[in-house]
Predict the 3D structure of the following.
Amino acid sequence: MDETMTEQPGKGGCCTPARAGGVVGRAPVTVLERPGQRTRPDMATIPGGEFLMGTDDREGFPEDGEGPIRSVRVRQFLMDRRAVTNAQFGEFVRATHYKTEAERFGWSYVFHQFVSPRARQRLMGVSGQARWWLAIKGANWNHPEGPDSNLRQRDNHPVIHVSWNDAQAYCAWAGTRLPTEAEWEFAARGGLEQRRYPWGDDLTPDGVFMCNTWQGRFPEVNTGEDGYAGTAPAGAFQPNGYGLYNVVGNVWEWCADWFSPTFHVAGPRDNPVGPNTGQSRVVRGGSYLCHKSYCNRYRVAARSANTPDSSAGNLGFRCVRDL
């Protein structure tokens, strides 16, 4: 662990809690002899083109910079149909002996309902802005709920407890990259224009669950009506029009861009990549912990952000590749 990083949990939002004192923008040092190749890469061709990005939705969060609606163009690219899974990330770790930032810090944030009595004995603190996020010593991608947990029967679930820096390291090994925010939103819309979700405007059309979010009274009662209390398999539910699974709900997905609530208002419109500097990186898509009562950010235009060294039990990623 870089000695300039703090080991203390910091203040963070309810969506994805942040570490305190992270080294902004500094990627972990990883020596790769040569790029790897993921087993069974499964990517969809995203056609590119011009689309209306952002929203003025009454259910939105203007302070996040969801609007204004603007015409943006992106080039054609390839994108993972599914978020990177535990099995895929494990392949990367075995090939490179990479240690995630959660492993090097020695802790990560776990949602309170998933922490066992034994793991609670290793509690380091509580996120400053959301009491339901517990900093658990020994929690990481391979032990998602703490040292007494494992990945049994979760090989095909999205990897979690990965920071932006960790995702970058994986992409460097896999010969891919993280999507820009514009690419992510274009792909997530699946060819639909200005719809709230990848499938339309109704969250559960005809009573059918289309994604993995919180049902019940947050943060105490999750009825699990969509079939999952925690993460769902990366290929669960119906894909969108471009063949992408779980682009909303399940896990937040890191994007390449630095976050700004205002840069895009007068920023570039042709393959935009966001501001040159910042404090936090963009995350998109919401997670299994999102609920309309407090975090209605499982809409395709919703945005959030976190520091590049942060990790939590609902943070993952998917990759893209240039054509």
Observations:
- The helical segments are 86-96, 101-105, 117-120, 164-174, 181-189.
- The first strand starts at residue 43 and ends at 46.
- The domain at 44-95+158-322 is CATH 3.90.1580.10 (paralog of FGE (formylglycine-generating enzyme)).
- The two ends are 36 Å apart (CA to CA).
